[in-house]
Amino acid sequence: MKKVLTYGLVILVIFIIIGLGAGVNYLFNYAIVAGKKDFINDVKQEKIDKDWQFSANRLSELSIKSDDGLKLVAKKVTHDTPSKKVAIVAHGYMGKSDFMGQYAQLFYDEGFDVLVPDNRAHGKSEGKYVGFGWLDRNDYVKWINTVIKEYGEKVDIVLYGLSMGAATVMMTSGEELPNQVKVIIEDCGYDSVDNELAFQLNDMFHLPAFPMIPLASGYTKLLAGYSFSEASAVKQLEKNTLPMLFIHGDKDDFVPEKMVYEVYNATKGPKELVIFEGAKHADSLKKYPEEYKKTIETFLAKYFPK
Question: Any stretches that span the bilayer, and where are they (predicted)?
Answer without folding.
Answer: 6-28
